[in-house]
Amino acid sequence: MKKLMITFFALFCFVFSNTVFSQHEEEHHAVSDDHHEDSHSGGHAHKNHMAVFTGATNNITHHSTGFTIGIDYEYRISNLIGLGLGGEYISIGSGEILGSIPIFIHPMNNMKIVTAPLVIFAEEHHDDEHHESTGKEASFAFRIGGGYDFHLGKVVFGPTVNFDIGSSKALVFGLSIGFGF
Asked: What's this model's pTM, rounded to 2 decimal places?
């Protein structure tokens, strides 16, 4: 798992440095295209995107399913790649909180692929000889998933499906609703 996280971090740094340079070059060579739609994104590529997510998380390892609510932000570095921040609350057991730094890849109109390292805060129970203690403990996981966006002006909505791999495996699915700006 540690090797996977190091590999992902190196990939993240490489992609970020190359896309920032590419964005600078695009801005430097751009002709005023403000009134033209982008053919790659169907004219819907906003630089910023904020969304809320509602759905369910099916923990395959522990055979449990819980209501999930989340929020994510994406900054489009280019028409193809975006970087973001995300957070979710999963109502399984005493609740889990997830944080992520996703990379969004937009290979074609309205479609997105998401990869992200996750930090999961979940309540852990420890029994020792003298007393029982509980508390939130952090664990790490990796997410891969995708979605499809429908656009109504600046409003964006669509289905999302993610698969989380860590100390347990989970399928996260639902509806994302947000706006671009």
From this structure: 0.72
